[in-house]
Each structure stands twice: as C-alpha cells, then as structure tokens.
Amino acid sequence: MKVLSVSSEVFPLIKTGGLADVAGALPIALKRYGVETKTLMPGYPAVMKAIRDPVVRLQFDDLLGEPATVLEVQHEGLDILVLDAPAYYDRPGGPYLDQTGKDYTDNWRRFAALSLAGAEIAAGLMPDWRPDLVHAHDWQAALTPVYMRYYPTPELPSVLTVHNIAFQGQFGAEVFPGLRLPPHAFSTESIEYYGHLGYLKGGLQTAWAITTVSPSYADEILTPEFGMGLEGVIASRRDALHGIVNGIDADIWNPATDPVVHTHYGPTTLKNREENRKSIAEFFRLHDDGAPIFCIISRLTWQKGMDLIAATADEIVALGGKLAILGSGDPALEGSLLAAAARHPGRIGISIGYNEPMSHLMQAGCDAIIIPSRFEPCGLTQLYGLRYGCVPIVARTGGLNDTVIDANHAAIAAKAATGIQFSPVTAEGMLQAIRRAMTLYADQKVWTQLQKQGMKSDVSWEKSAERYAALYSSLAPKGK
Q1: Which of 119, 142, 260, 403 is the most exposed, having the fewest neighbouring CB atoms within 10 Å of its CB?
Q2: Spatial distance between the Cα atoms of 184 and 78, rounded to a whole number of angstroms
Q3: Which residues of the chain have pLDDT under 50?
Q4: Which CATH architecture has domain 270-456?
Q5: In this predicted model, what pLDDT tens digit does every residue of 94-113 receive, in sequence order?
Q6: Domain 2-247+462-475 annotated CATH 3.40.525.10
Q7: What are the C-alpha distances in Å from 416 to residues 76, 242, 386, 407, 444?
Q8: What is the per-residue pLDDT across 196-245, written as a single tens digit (0 to 9) for each?
Q9: What 8-state DSSP symbol labels residue 300?
Q10: How many CB atoms lie within 10 A of CB 285?
Q11: Are 440 and 446 in contact (CB under 8 A)?
C-alpha cells in the first residue's frame, strides 16, 4: 500500500513537539506491514539546509498565488517530499511563529498551500506515483481531505490524526476566497465554523477516518471539557473515530546504546544510572546527595500544569526532593521557576530552552519525571521515562492514563506497577503523588521493581503501527 503523509514537521528535520516524532517514526514502523509512505512537509530553512541530493518531482507555477517545487529526498530512512516554496517558508523564526513569538499573519495561506499540494499529489499530479490513501496530521494539514473532497479525488480514502484538539487553525472568513475552494465548501458540513474558517473542523468533517493519539483522549474529546468546542463535530463522526496510542522510536530512545548517555545500562544494570545522575547534578548544580531528583522536560505552559510546579516547588524541596527543569514557554512561568531555583540553590536547577541531548540524559539520570498535564492527548515524555527507568508521575488524563500503571498496593504486589498517577490535577493532588513517590523511593527494592517493570513496557511503534496498517487496509480499495 502506498500512503501520502502530510505533516508540518517531521523529526529529525524539524521539531517543535510530539507531532514531529510521530510523523518521523510511524512511516518507518509501517514498513514491516507493507506500507510505503512518502511524507510531504514544508521546506523551512532548516529543512532545506539538511537535505542532500533532492530530485525535482513536481512544479507549481501558482500554488495559491506563489510558485513552488516538490523535491523528493531520502533522509534517515524516510522518503520525504519537501514543498520548496520560499515565499511561504523561507523566513526567520520558527515553523509557525515569527522572531517575536507571534503567529505569521499568512499561516492560513502557508498551510493551505501544504494541504493543496498534498491533494494534488493524491490526485496523481506527480509522475509515476499516486497514493492509495492520504494521512494528514493536525490543523496544518487538515485542509488536505477538504481539498480532496472538492477536487477530483473524493474516492481516495483519507485519515486525519488529531494530536491536540486545542490547536484548530481558525481564521477569518475574509480569507476564504484565497483558498480557491468552491463556494459551497463554506458550510457547516465543511470548514465554516461560527462564521469563520476552521481548518481542523473541516478536516474532521471530510476525512474518511479520524484518529487521536490515545484511546482515553478519543473518549475525552467527546466531552465539553476536552473537546474545545468541537465535541459536537467529533460526536457526529464517532463511528469514524479511533484512539491509537503513540509509540516511540526504540532505537533512538535506548539507554543501552543512546550516544548522549554517559553510561549505558539496561534493566539488569540499573546501578550504571548513577554516573548519569551525577552528570545531571553537575549540569543543574544540584547537591550530589541521596535525595531523589524529579525532572520536568516540558513546554512551560498552563496546559502542561507548569503553574502547579511553580506553586509547589518550595514544598517539594521541603519534602526532601530536588527538581531539574528543562523547557521554555510562558514568560511568567519561566520567571516563577527561575525565582524558585534562586531560592533553593542546590535543590532546584533550571535550564530555559530546548535541548534534545539533555532531555535524553535527564531521562537516563533522574529518578522520576513529573508530568502534571491538565490534558495530554498522548504524551511522549512518560514513554521515554518508562524506557529509561525514570519513573513517571503523571496526571490521570489522556495518554498518560493509558500508558502508566499506577503503583497502588495491588499493582505493586502483582509487580505490574510502572509509575504513579494522580487526580484531581491540582497542586495538592500532585503533592500527594510526590509524597507517595518519596515513600516508594525510600524502599529501593520497590523502586527498582518500578523501574524494571517500566522498562519492560512495550512503548515501541510496533503494536500501534499494526493498528494503523489495519485501519488503512479497512479504508483502501480491495486488492490494495
């Protein structure tokens, strides 16, 4: 089966979050099931700099008003189609935000162009290759099934994956003519959303199947609390909704071989983590004592529950814990956490920014990772924690609920527990979980059992890729 994946970011070429990890890992995992994937993505400066020996596959004289070229390139096991459109993507800043941290004013056109290019490839415009199915990711690619509905490809199946329904791609109705869709596409059955445009909403209405990145999140987005205004649309497509938990690349995330880990280890050599722990203490300037190091590797936002960390940092230290924090985000939260670190030198360390190698080393050296997200479609950091023996302490929501087995008495006795869950997602709820963690940590036999059981968890893409392959097969024409 031939699949066209459309995504605004793909690891290792460009990454702002978990979307890139999924878009980079799933095509490789699908190969064993006979699925050949080409992934269409924008030609940001970092992407154009990284690729080698691209081949021109398609040219657009007028892609929503600008010229563009589709380049094909092989990169680290991925078959990538790069949409080289300098007017849309060759600019300073990030994929979505300018250098001042504001949305590009033409994001509506930049990602509509990506989606339209995907629909044109789906229609057979690229010589010698046409997909059997199109898989679009998040709002940035969600117009792909919309264009397919109104272009000559309505018979081609499409899948839309919602990685985070909070990000919907909403724009004013005044830009609708620039999308070059037929007038009747501006309707409640398509992209019209309370008088505006909703890219994700349009994709939800027109894709043949909808997936989310965990079974619990699939249930949650049917509710007003988590549906973010789209719960009615989701409910109307409930029969097409599938929750498939994400996996991770078990080759990249492997404590036995990870090149940035100072001392490699496995379930039977957990004592080797101590050298990595010393490296973490040195980097974050933490006292090198026996107290547990709790790490946070996250965007510093309200959704991720980082205000709870800021509010309880003093109490975590009073309980005897230490904090190592890596991330960036809300300036006020950054300030609060920096102030906490200043109040507790040697007990709280913080590094503002994105540091992929350090995120690996933290999983390999810290004792536990705290993930207090108010909602979390899947989450990947808890999967990395399980893989690396860094015990996850997680809010009971979304994919966190699906992937971590709480260390209650029965689960510990059955040697099934892999971490600690807490609910409600409040400062006191989180502190109670940390108190439980401190008690468990004091019994190193039980703590080591938690680590080993977590490391046994199958967090790879194998089972999830099998489910995607089965979904594709159920949608594709017979014989494919």
Answers
A1: 260
A2: 38
A3: 479
A4: 3-Layer(aba) Sandwich (3.40)
A5: 999 999 989 999 999 999 99
A6: no
A7: 36, 27, 13, 8, 16
A8: 999 999 999 999 999 999 999 999 999 999 999 999 999 999 999 999 99
A9: B
A10: 14
A11: yes
